[in-house]
Design a protein that fits this description.
The complex is a heterodimer of chains A (about 450) and B (about 300).
Chain A: H1 8-31, E1 36-42, H2 49-64, E2 67-73, H3 79-90, E3 96-100, H4 103-106, H5 115-125, H6 130-136, E4 145-153, E5 156-159, H7 160-167, H8 171-174, H9 183-186, H10 191-203, H11 216-228, H12 245-258, H13 272-278, E6 284-286, H14 290-298, H15 300-303, E7 306-308, E8 313-314, E9 317-329, H16 336-346, H17 349-358, H18 375-378, E10 395-398, H19 406-414, H20 417-426, H21 432-446
Parallel strand pairs in A: 1-2, 1-3, 9-10
Antiparallel strand pairs in A: 3-9, 4-9, 5-6, 5-7, 8-9
Helix pairs in contact in A: 2-16, 2-17, 7-10, 12-20, 13-14, 20-21
Chain B: H1 2-54, H2 68-74, H3 77-110, H4 113-128, H5 131-142, H6 148-155, H7 167-195, H8 199-207, H9 212-240, H10 244-249, H11 261-271, H12 275-283, H13 285-311
Helix pairs in contact in B: 1-12, 3-7, 3-9, 4-7, 7-9, 9-13, 11-12
Classes of the chains: A alpha/beta (about 450), B mainly alpha (about 300).
């Protein structure tokens, strides 16, 4: 039988072992004392943009001692949408997920309200633009925090040379590279002027590339036309108001414009207009700077002539489509305090400025005071192409289907009711009244609870 | 008598041992199949019942509404358009796949054995390439800015075709890709069936003075009738439930005129965030396909019984 004998040596060895073990364990606990956090961000298409976001997150995680796990989820193939839907059903997954446009409202009941966080952020950053508030506060409560990565404008991206040569429009005079918009010249940029330019460019063999499909680029463009004419489908109280003179006027204009668009425009998706511009075939598209950025790589001779500028004005004003992204915290998240802390860190002006720079100016934060970053002044070629990309002048930011109640507007947008009305007239040969009647029946269906 | 008694007892022991062996084999078979059974339960049966449950909820999935979603769909113009389009798509695609597969099978069957394998291999390529990948290539061929097909047409002086922009051309394009993808399956099934038709039947037909057409009608088709029915049924189910080809080529457009059940269910359920309505749409495929399956399999079963009766 072995007897264990406690000696001074064994006692000292044991004590020092316990001290070492305690130090290591204590340090491991202290290294992530604030727990774990799992985030799913939108996978930015601009190379390197994710790295800046990762760097900002890691800075925060090291300071706050949080074990942070980051996933970048692409929106191609609806991967992000499917992830959100799956996690919402399963009530498990990431703590924070990126959500665009209508998703914070769709999942409002499953998201943690962030009124407290937004109060602090708004106190520091100032107000958001109206679209951000409309989409982020669907039931009077902030359901997600506006995100910089992915938030974008969808105004025109035009070929300076083709617009001047064939349509007689000097965009540099209206929206100069080194200063604000010229109010007298910019006032001439109306939907009627766009229609005239579309006809001339079509005759010259460079049609405007505006889709009539069911994806968001098409819906946003025609939505901004409808708003410029004061045409609404459903008002803020949920009443169906599509049957109006304003709607008929907008539809009539759309039909006239569609005559000068590519024959396949009705089948276009969100990449079609990009390809149209990059191929050199088109004089104008409505798009964020992604098409221009790809043209810089694939068709530099096209890229160096592309100019981004505000939308045209209609009888009721100038409405520019804005699509925000958000960061939402699931209600099932076990570490909401860390999640809010991270989002507060990412919502600072400094963080937003770094993210905009990393995106080469693609991202536009939702806070109106953040529209003066240097990146937009410096990007090129041509230099200044993004100067008038963020909102400015008399342009009002908008989203198609607003100001309908959120759940109804989401259906109008995602089912592309506006572009389908136009397509029924243009391709189906229906009258405006018949298209409106069809829309009314669709809208009644969207009312179901 | 003792011998008989001993034989009886011995026989009983043999039977008992054989019975327990059979039972053990049955248990082994069950356990070997269990992983697949569990997968089917988890990934097919459970989602099907969950879908049923979802289809009875309101849009926000907060309360039970019974069959309200189904009655809502019956009143939608788009729903009946999707039903019509799904039937057109499935029936026309299957007919063409079966015809082309049948013709190809005969052509390949007539080739000398030496060269047959390489032709079989080449003709199977469309079916072997993952459909999402091959459909993407077709999409590029149809794409308005870079369409290779339109470039060919324009180079011989013809006008470009709006393959995906015009509703009827879009339907044609989608059916064409589905036929291109699915015809090899029919070819290989009919080729295998042709090889199993006894040569004596054709010799007997020759002796009777039958020409090629008569041999086709009176020998080949009757012998292939069951396999034709089964392949048509299988393809009808798969084509009816098609998602990838329509999704990639047209996403259901233009003007919802190429939507089939699966793509419209995705549009409503996932993209428009109305999961109960999406589930409802996808469930409509079940009675339609179930009815087709019963109808076709009943005929196969009757035919098999007739043949067994003739053989007996």
């Amino acid at each position: 039988m072995t007897r264990w004998h406690l000696s001074r040596r064994s006692l000292l060895a044991g004590a020092s072992g316990a001290v070492v073990a305690g130090t290591v364990l204590g340090r491991a606990r202290g290294a992530h004392a604030a727990g774990k956090l799992s985030v799913g961000f939108w996978d930015h298409w601009v190379p390197g943009a994710n790295d800046t976001l990762t760097k900002l997150c890691r800075e925060w995680a090291e300071k706050e001692k949080v074990d942070l796990k980051i996933d970048y989820i692409p929106s191609q193939g609806n991967k992000l949408l499917l992830t959100i839907a799956a996690e919402a059903q399963a009530r498990s997954g990431h703590d924070i997920l990126a959500m665009n446009t209508w998703l914070p409202g769709s999942h409002a009941e499953r998201l943690e309200p962030v009124d407290d966080l937004m109060k602090e952020i708004l106190a520091k950053n100032g107000p958001t633009n109206p679209v951000v508030e409309y989409l982020g506060k669907p039931d009077g409560h902030w359901r997600a925090v506006p995100a910089t990565p992915g938030s974008q404008m969808k105004g025109p991206a035009s070929r300076l040379d083709l617009m001047k040569e064939h349509a007689g429009i000097d965009l540099l005079k209206m929206y100069p590279p080194d200063g604000p918009a010229n109010p007298v010249e910019a006032a001439k940029w109306t939907w009627d002027a766009l229609l005239a330019a579309a006809e001339k460019c079509h005759k010259a063999g460079y049609p405007f590339g505006i889709g009539l499909g069911t994806t968001s680029d098409s819906v946003d463009t025609w939505g901004s036309l409808f708003q410029a004419y004061g045409a609404r489908l459903v008002d803020e109280k949920g009443n169906i108001v599509v049957k109006s003179d304003a709607t008929r006027a907008a539809l009539d204009f759309a039909k006239r414009l569609a005559a000068f668009l590519p024959a396949d425009a009705i089948a276009w998706d969100d990449g079609s207009n990009n390809r149209w511009l990059i191929s050199g075939k088109g004089a104008l598209i409505f798009n964020p700077p992604s098409a221009w950025a790809v043209a810089k790589r694939d068709a530099p001779q096209v890229a160096e002539k592309v100019w981004h500028h505000p939308a045209p004005a209609g009888p009721k004003g100038r409405f520019g489509p804005y699509l925000p992204y958000y960061w939402g915290i699931w209600a099932f998240s076990p570490n909401k305090s860390a999640a809010k802390s991270l989002l507060a860190h990412l919502s600072t002006r400094s963080a937003a400025e770094q993210l905009v720079a990393a995106s080469q100016g693609y991202d536009i934060p939702g806070y109106t005071s953040f529209n003066d970053f240097k990146t937009w002044l410096e990007e090129g070629p041509p230099k200044g192409t993004l100067r008038h990309y963020p909102n400015s002048g008399d342009q009002i930011l908008s989203i198609a289907a607003a100001p309908a109640p959120h759940k109804i507007a989401e259906q109008i947008y995602n089912q592309a009711t506006i572009t389908k009305m136009i397509a029924r007239m243009v391709q189906g040969g229906e009258s405006a009244d018949k298209a409106i009647a069809w829309a009314e029946s669709e809208l009644e269906g969207f009312m179901r609870g | 008598m003792a011998q008989a008694a001993m034989g009886g007892a011995y026989g009983e022991r043999v039977v008992a041992r054989g019975g327990s062996l059979a039972r053990r084999r049955a248990w082994i078979a069950f356990f070997l199949c269990l992983p697949l059974i569990l997968l089917v339960l988890a990934l097919v049966i459970y989602p099907a019942f969950y879908s049923l449950h979802l289809a009875t909820l309101n849009k926000s999935m907060t309360r039970f509404v019974g069959l309200a979603n189904f009655t809502f769909l019956f009143k939608r113009e788009t729903f009946w358009m999707v039903v019509e389009q799904s039937v057109i798509f499935a029936v026309s695609a299957v007919i063409f796949k079966a015809l082309i597969g049948f013709v190809l099978a005969h052509l390949v069957h007539r080739l000398p054995d030496k060269g047959q394998r390489k032709w079989r291999g080449m003709l199977l390529v469309p079916w072997v390439i993952p459909p999402a990948m091959s459909t993407l290539v077709w999409w590029w061929m149809y794409e308005p800015s870079y369409s290779a097909l339109n470039w060919l047409l324009e180079s011989v002086g013809l006008e470009a075709v709006p393959w995906l922009g015009d509703p009827y051309w879009a339907r044609f394009s989608v059916i064409l890709v589905n036929v291109w993808y699915g015809a090899p399956f029919f070819m290989i099934m009919y080729l295998a069936a042709l090889k199993s038709v006894p040569a004596e039947l054709y010799e007997a037909a020759d002796i009777d003075g039958a020409n090629a057409f008569q041999k086709l009608i009176y020998v080949t088709l009757p012998m292939l009738r069951n396999i034709i029915a089964i392949t048509v049924l299988f393809s009808l189910i798969v084509t009816f439930a098609n998602f990838d080809i329509v999704r990639i080529l047209t996403a259901g457009g233009p003007r919802d005129m190429t939507h089939v059940f699966a793509t419209w269910a995705f549009k409503l359920g996932i993209e428009s965030n109305d999961i109960p309505l999406g589930a409802c749409v996808s469930l409509f495929m079940f009675p339609i396909l179930g009815g087709a399956a019963i109808f076709i399999l009943r005929d196969v079963h009757r035919r098999s019984r007739e043949l067994a009766g003739v053989a007996g």
